[in-house]
Task: inverse folding
């Protein structure tokens, strides 16, 4: 390993880029966990945050595209943006929220209606979906995140995870301090040699 100034600066730059990438990934994950957490508190019905809603999938109707325990993120969209093959989340009055694929678009009484079907279902849905029943278009599927969220709702698991994070942060601080001490020693030795 080289210890000249150029290689040290290169390594520092690489480490900074890696830290930045991990920070961005962490923020994105934190945002998604926040969305799902808020939705979970709202009895899995989703809550609007910056135009996005999250849902934890609880049925196999969209298998293999979307599985039980997956988290989907939907975005409110305009009627003209919806087309056949899009996956939408919708809620009919006095029914549960569903996430199915649009198989075709028809017109009834001058209004567009969407014929939907779950990928794992043999038949299309009996009732057609009007635009005002559409909660949003699926923009992201995060596999298994719903299972992780359910697992993390256990207070003991959450406490252990927080404890591990604190230990890792503490070890990282110790490591940084040791590096700083080594760096200072090298500087002192260079000054003595000069």
Result:
């Amino acid at each position: 390993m080289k210890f000249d100034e150029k290689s040290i600066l290169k390594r520092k730059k690489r480490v900074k880029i890696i830290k930045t990438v991990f920070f961005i990934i962490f923020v994105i994950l934190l945002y998604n966990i926040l969305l799902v957490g808020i939705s979970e508190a709202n009895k899995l019905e989703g809550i609007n945050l910056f135009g996005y809603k999250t849902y934890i999938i609880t049925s196999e109707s969209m298998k293999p595209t979307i599985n039980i325990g997956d988290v989907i993120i939907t975005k409110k969209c305009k009627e003209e943006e919806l087309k056949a093959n899009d996956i939408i989340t919708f809620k009919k009055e006095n029914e549960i929220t569903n996430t199915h694929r649009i198989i075709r678009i028809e017109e009834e009484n001058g209004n567009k209606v969407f014929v939907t079907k779950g990928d794992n279902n043999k038949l299309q849905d009996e009732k057609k979906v009007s635009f005002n029943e559409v909660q949003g278009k699926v923009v992201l599927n995060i596999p298994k995140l719903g299972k992780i969220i359910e697992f993390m709702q256990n207070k003991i698991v959450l406490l252990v995870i927080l404890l591990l994070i604190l230990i890792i942060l503490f070890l990282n601080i110790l490591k940084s301090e040791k590096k700083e001490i080594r760096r200072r020693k090298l500087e002192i030795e260079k000054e003595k040699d000069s």
